[in-house]
Amino acid sequence: MSTPLAEFADPAADALPLWLVRPGKNGPDLPEGLGTTGTEWAKAQGFAGRAGQLCLLPQASGGIAGALFGIGPAAQPGDRPARERFLLAKAAETLPKGSWRIVHPGGDVDLANGALGWLFAQYRFTRYKQGEAPGARLVCPDGVDADRLLALAAGEYLARDLINTPASDMGPADLEAAARAVAERHGAEVMVIAGDDLLARNFPMIHAVGRAAAQAPRLIDLRFAGDGPKLTLVGKGVCFDTGGLDIKPPASMGLMKKDMGGAANVLGLADTLARLGLTRGMQLRVLIPAVENAISANAFRPGDVLTSRKGLTVEVNNTDAEGRLVLADALALADEDAPDLLISMATLTGAARVALGPDLPPFFCDDDAVAAALQGAGMANADPIWRMPFWEPYETMIEPAIADLDNAPGGGFAGAITAALFLRRFTQTARHYVHFDIYGWQPGAAPGRPKGGTGQGMRAILNALPDIL
């Protein structure tokens, strides 16, 4: 990783108090320990306890005695989700350097997610340009599992770093190196099949999509030592997507370094699971088809019919719908192992973004209990996701005239659903299959989420696993 890992302040540090304050009917609910001077100062500054409002408190000598931070009114049953999922991260980004400790929190304040957001706010991608991260460090609040939050932050940082790195330094070989680094850190086994060996080992669609690029296509296979139920994560690793011969316009190609966001997310999730020691109680496998969808004399063409690892034939009606092709071969391999839970993550369709925007990734799942566990865990852990259907009547849309499947149905409707239905055709033996169509990018800075690559769905999956496996 090019970014230093997040950290909490030393508990023994001489930390300044940060009071979390709510608004009240007769003014902000200021803490009694603030004293007359502090109370009058807060009033003079117009501090009202509004969400995100900050008020530094002075010492008589001219230094800083502490700070007040508004967290808005308490949430009520049935309230809409808060505008800022990591509101406390705003304090991390605006407070002066030094160590801070939270005092006077209300009983309904989620200190764990607040502290996690604070850690997320420390992230800065500095591989190519130096940028100083916020210098305010938080003492981990009492009762909060610091090791767990640091593991979550490490996985998030890894995903962000991988997505933010341009294709010049994050091609298929570089993505393999990143996967090997995760494996080495946690003692996992790695197998990689690359180049023409993909044909010899029956991964024809991964080979077809990636063969025109300067770096050979490859399938990366990580297995973590452990016993128990089988969890297999499959991440789309298209390191750059020109669109192939159906070339994208420049405006659509500008962010295509993030088209390996699915791979970044599954690696980040695997890293967190291993840091938490959870891989010992499961059989974790990570599969990443890593390619670049490039243009050359040997590029695959519109109208080609490819035969997949599963034996299903696929008519290529758009070379820019390549992600589902490489995922299909990887999913077929994963399915041969009959996992208990098979999850694919991919920056797959623009249709998903049209439906739900960049901040709310859809997921597809046939099992109501699994879907409820995932969506509930996402909402409870500031990692929102939204269920969409595998809509059976649309199956005919992915069945062309001359092959078993169509990689890009015409008509312009239900693109995220038809892509998910396509992938499901390659998962017949897994006990549960879930597909995430993520964006993997934060378009504008928000508390705890700077503009750039971002993890999506990782904490939802992590926290739902006890209810699924």
Automatic annotation (TrEMBL):
Keywords assigned: Aminopeptidase, Hydrolase, Manganese, Protease
Pfam family, one: Peptidase_M17_N_1
Domain Cytosol aminopeptidase: 318-325
InterPro entries, A to Z: Leucine_aapep/pepB, Macro_dom-like, Peptidase_M17_C, Peptidase_M17_N_1
GO molecular function: manganese ion binding; metalloaminopeptidase activity
A single Gene Ontology CC term: cytoplasm
PROSITE patterns for the chain: CYTOSOL_AP
Keyword match Cytoplasm: no
Protein's recorded name: Leucyl aminopeptidase family protein
Source organism of this protein record: Paracoccus shanxieyensis
